[in-house]
Description:
Blueprint: H1 2-7, H2 12-76, H3 79-86, H4 91-99, E1 109-116, E2 142-146, E3 149-158, E4 171-178, H5 179-186, E5 198-199, E6 207-208, H6 212-215, E7 216-217, H7 224-274, H8 281-284, H9 292-327, H10 337-351, E8 357-365, H11 368-375, H12 377-394, E9 401-405, E10 408-414, H13 418-434, E11 448-456, H14 460-464, H15 466-477, E12 485-487, H16 491-494, H17 503-514, E13 518-527, E14 533-544, E15 547-549, H18 551-560, H19 564-580, E16 589-593, H20 596-599, H21 602-610, E17 619-625, H22 626-631, H23 633-645, E18 649-655, H24 662-665, E19 672-675, H25 677-685, H26 687-702, E20 706-709, H27 715-724, E21 728-729, H28 748-752
Parallel strand pairs: 11-12, 14-16, 16-17, 17-18, 18-19, 19-20, 20-21
Antiparallel strand pairs: 1-4, 2-3, 2-6, 3-4, 5-7, 8-10, 8-11, 9-10, 13-14, 13-21, 14-15
Helix pairs in contact: 2-7, 11-12, 12-13, 17-19, 19-21, 25-26, 25-27
Amino acid sequence: xxxxxxxxxxxxxxxxxxxxxxxxxxxxxxxxxxxxxxxxxxxxxxxxxxxxxxxxxxxxxxxxxxxxxxxxxxxxxxxxxxxxxxxxxxxxxxxxxxxxxxxxxxxxxxxxxxxxxxxxxxxxxxxxxxxxxxxxxxxxxxxxxxxxxxxxxxxxxxxxxxxxxxxxxxxxxxxxxxxxxxxxxxxxxxxxxxxxxxxxxxxxxxxxxxxxxxxxxxxxxxxxxxxxxxxxxxxxxxxxxxxxxxxxxxxxxxxxxxxxxxxxxxxxxxxxxxxxxxxxxxxxxxxxxxxxxxxxxxxxxxxxxxxxxxxxxxxxxxxxxxxxxxxxxxxxxxxxxxxxxxxxxxxxxxxxxxxxxxxxxxxxxxxxxxxxxxxxxxxxxxxxxxxxxxxxxxxxxxxxxxxxxxxxxxxxxxxxxxxxxxxxxxxxxxxxxxxxxxxxxxxxxxxxxxxxxxxxxxxxxxxxxxxxxxxxxxxxxxxxxxxxxxxxxxxxxxxxxxxxxxxxxxxxxxxxxxxxxxxxxxxxxxxxxxxxxxxxxxxxxxxxxxxxxxxxxxxxxxxxxxxxxxxxxxxxxxxxxxxxxxxxxxxxxxxxxxxxxxxxxxxxxxxxxxxxxxxxxxxxxxxxxxxxxxxxxxxxxxxxxxxxxxxxxxxxxxxxxxxxxxxxxxxxxxxxxxxxxxxxxxxxxxxxxxxxxxxxxxxxxxxxxxxxxxxxxxxxxxxxxxxxxxxxxxxxxxxxxxxxxxxxxxxxxxxxx
Length: 753
């Protein structure tokens, strides 16, 4: 035992290093020997065989040419050949029977023709693709490919009868040879696989024989040396495998005795601790271990267990905080959309099949976007908080209120009478209407609309569509002249008619008809590089006597009556008059909003194109929402591209408030991206959402789009967006919408920039 203590414990690193050094040395020597043998033998064999193969192939080609030239010499000296040139009446018979049929030429000869000294064939129609005419430039022998076959064309001169060198040639003999057949018949290869011979040549290309060798490709036949080499390598690998098995067995035994057995004992003890059996490790596992690291683990495990208990308690607290962050709306403190979706899923799962009434009530603030645009996002946040307080104080104890997004809220009622749910909804609307929003600086009355839908939990199909039904009912309640609380019924799905009888309705209709009461207010869009106004956004108002009707009252009527295109036409006419009267400062520009139906309306597009006459003095920007493109993308894109070709710029308004994704944005025909005020607010807030929005903006800027930030109300916001790289900005910091075009107030940040 004392000797064992002197040897143990050693570290795992010591065991591993010793074994790795041994294995590396053995297998390094074996690997080097194998690679050296393989490389030496393979290289030598390949060099030798390749050289021999080339010589073999060169000899075969030379032998073919010599053979055909010898046959051609004999044939050219025959009187019969000279007679054909003198009188070719029996030329066809001589060619097919006296020459080819008599075996004068090799079997691989496909065709033969005689050509006059001028290079014209004696046959009107030569056989086997032989040329009709040749000349001194193409009378040299060549190779060509026809389909999958290679043919060798050889042309041999026919000398005069006296054979004098200065005597003119009488003509030429032309031969067509099957190259592959000639090679196989004339040569028995020892190094080349004849079937693998391939010539790199295009169809009908004439390859001179001098270039034939460079175009040839072939495969080598296997030889005895290669077989012997493979056998040697295989034997060597078998020997190496035996060595590997032996060393692996030794390594396995070492791991089993030194690591595996102690680790199993440790694992068994940890399992016992997990199942609540036994106490601390040091109390039940005192046996010494032969590895220093394992011995340290044995001592550290007890302390680690105590730390885990403390961490577990801390994690429970953190999980509660994370759950609250994930399920609560940070602005109002009520449950958010995720909380609603989880509760809705739970309600459907636990109530399915039971006789239980489920009611869903949706709330929505009327014209909240107009309030937000008019008074700023800070006032908008205060309005949302006030509505939340009013609803929470009205709902019963235990009823959960959810903020689904923006100005939309929801609550669920279980096992409640529909009449009681209706009364609760009416009390909620009354509570909101009684709230003093003037204390927040809001001059207009703030109202909400509510949609109620209910179903029996036993009716799974109706229960699944309950959110959609409540949504339809809510939008039905928002229609002018309707009760502000609507209970869903099937007639609402197909009911698109809305009746208006107010003075606002008459003013809207008169504005569309005459265009006289339309009043454009302009808000500056500032170049963030120098603080100067780049252009103005045209925002519509309607003047009714001494009253100014805002967009929050105009557009519900327009949308309900489907008068978007007609209203666009009237607004464009008003802007056209302002441009003619010089109401817009020269060398700036103007941006005008066009609705989705207006983008695809030929009349509106034509009216916009008429404004093109002002492009020499003003920048003209068309602002559209992503919804306008999504509805009829192809037609809208075609019309917008036509406007772009004429010099207009296209801006995507309210980016980040709807459906846009980067993949969809890449296909939109736009030049300018206007970041929605909600995205700018995320930048001010910072944190994870701010970082995501900042990176998104940077990515879009790098993609080549001009970026405009909406809702700039403080210098801090201005500094943020300038730092990110926005090129344009718009908001109350520079100026509110007015019926005259004012210069934006410059700030010191521009001088610093």
